[in-house]
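Data's thin. Show one?
=====
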Amino acid sequence: MKLSPADIEHLADLSHLALGAAEKKKFEEQLSSILDYVNKLQELEKAEAVPTGTEAVNVFREDKVTACDAATRERIIKNFPASVDGLLSVPAVFSETKDDF
């Protein structure tokens, strides 16, 4: 499957990547090759595949809040890069608009 330059620009925009002309060309070739390979995999006879899953459902433990003593809490806050009013402060991950990037 051949991706167009417009497809690559759209993917770069979604990924918030600034690509030069050479990088766009390289990604166009690489991503097209990857999609061709995935298409070949989809053509395989699926009856030959051996199931590898298990019957287990939600094997993860449930999240629980656990208290710690004041000295441990103070040590954690002291060693963390930033805190506000006794709470750990981290940079924002999500933004409201595209312009925030």
Remarks:
- Residues 5-44 form a domain with the Histone, subunit A fold (CATH 1.10.20).
- The beta strands are 83-84, 87-88.
